[in-house]
Amino acid sequence: MSKDVPLPANLPEQISQKIKAGGTIRRIVVDRAKCIGANSCVAVAPGVFQLDAENLAYVTDPDSTDDDTIMMAAQSCPVLAVLLYDENGDKIFPAE
Ligand code: SF4
Description:
Helix content is 16%, strand content 24%. The chain is globular. The N and C termini lie far apart (31 Å). Strand 3 and strand 4 (57-59) form a beta hairpin. Strands 1-2-5-6 form a 4-stranded antiparallel β-sheet, covered by helices on one side. A two-stranded antiparallel ribbon has the order 3-4. The protein has 96 residues and is of the alpha+beta class. The protein has one domain: Alpha-Beta Plaits. Bound molecules: iron/sulfur cluster. Iron/sulfur cluster binds at residues 30, 35-41, 49, 57, 77, 79, 81-82.
């Protein structure tokens, strides 16, 4: 049973986001104002991230891969535009 995943405080304004069904990472957010279309997140986790017609990343299927791969995708972003949150709405990555 999955409980509600609270909305984090201080989310950026222009985002694409999805809730994961399980694991440590429960909310995946792309800050689309920060994204520069570098494509690294898509290269690492193509099932989770895709680029739209504007060359900005959005979240597709959050459950298509494991937490480690999603973390690697977030770490690969040169502008840290991929934000990861846990089941309490606390930020896992990037560190403040
Ligand atoms: S790696 Fe970062 S900058 Fe590149 S597409 Fe993904 S979110 Fe955008």
